[in-house]
Description:
Layout: H1 2-14, H2 27-32, H3 40-76, E1 78-83, H4 90-101, H5 110-139, H6 160-169, H7 171-183, E2 197-199, H8 204-216, H9 236-252, H10 254-262, H11 278-281, H12 290-295, E3 299-301, E4 303-309, E5 315-321, E6 340-344, H13 361-374, E7 382-387, H14 390-398, H15 403-406, H16 417-435, E8 443-446, H17 452-473
Parallel strand pairs: 1-5, 1-6, 2-3, 6-7, 7-8
Antiparallel strand pairs: 4-5
Amino acid sequence: xxxxxxxxxxxxxxxxxxxxxxxxxxxxxxxxxxxxxxxxxxxxxxxxxxxxxxxxxxxxxxxxxxxxxxxxxxxxxxxxxxxxxxxxxxxxxxxxxxxxxxxxxxxxxxxxxxxxxxxxxxxxxxxxxxxxxxxxxxxxxxxxxxxxxxxxxxxxxxxxxxxxxxxxxxxxxxxxxxxxxxxxxxxxxxxxxxxxxxxxxxxxxxxxxxxxxxxxxxxxxxxxxxxxxxxxxxxxxxxxxxxxxxxxxxxxxxxxxxxxxxxxxxxxxxxxxxxxxxxxxxxxxxxxxxxxxxxxxxxxxxxxxxxxxxxxxxxxxxxxxxxxxxxxxxxxxxxxxxxxxxxxxxxxxxxxxxxxxxxxxxxxxxxxxxxxxxxxxxxxxxxxxxxxxxxxxxxxxxxxxxxxxxxxxxxxxxxxxxxxxxxxxxxxxxxxxxxxxxxxxxxxxxxxxxxxxxxxxxxxxxxxxxxxxxxxxxxxx
Length: 477
């Protein structure tokens, strides 16, 4: 027994750490081992580098931890995607969201939106002047009236009066071009982007605010012509105020209205239309209302993320994506983990796409709707259809334009708002039911996004529905 114990102790001693020889070629140990004959200065430098490396390492670890917390928090947030073709009203709907759930959202941006609204008005004037120019070239000298410069009420041709009015309004166009070039400096091409455009995430609000302030309060050494109140003479506020009477005269001119009607042009149906508000907007003391901001047109390239924090503590992210055909491939990365899609489909049965004049707008909306309903990445998302721009539909039908002319399958169904809306609503419903990867409820609302009160009431109900669905998915209720 004693021998056994002795043998046991000998075995333990043999494997005791005390008797283990240090490994001389441990690479990890060599990294931190002081070099031979290290001086005091070298030691201090080595320790300082080690401490700096440890500090950087801690910062990286803290950054990773913070990123993980933000990722986990964002994963619990409600994500809503605004989809639809270009000019379907996505940005207008987004601004309705912002006003409905963050009433003070635009309080610090009045100056920015004032400039955008002024540019929208100038854009409408630009379209009007282009049509007047074309008509003057066609009519030629035959339409010129006597020395009074006015046209007779019976004439359907433009006169020298219209020519002179057009010439007086031309300075407005250079202002629009200059500001558009500043907002979209790279790849600026007026033929491709005839309206004011910005890139998502480009800091366009900062640029626009800076440009606007420079025109109001020029920097030292500024050589632009100035007015008595310290404004630059190329400030759109002053130029519009000086042009107000000419704009109103041209827009309300009966002969110009006849030309527009003959050409089938309805400027009032265009996004960002403010010609009927010229008396109010083309003044030196104009301040935009919330309704003006909602109606303002600003084309966006790319995808913009907007964060909302609700009173109930819920966090929302709303993504506004460009709707033109070239932008649609950028949608896919935002399909992952989205709780709801608000799909805007204007019932513009008699219009075509700007980027492809051969494609009907409503036909394109239905094609997009089918693609969204079919997509497996969106199988768990609620899709909420907004049949938008109902006000324009009502005006179109009131003008006597027949749906069957553009949609032969409409047949002999009455050509009124109720029946037209019902017909297309059932089309969207049928595709939703047939193409969805799994059963889901069909939600549909009829909206006019520029009607802020009615739209915000709809959005309140939509918000509550999305929140309930999200809580159900999280097994909270």
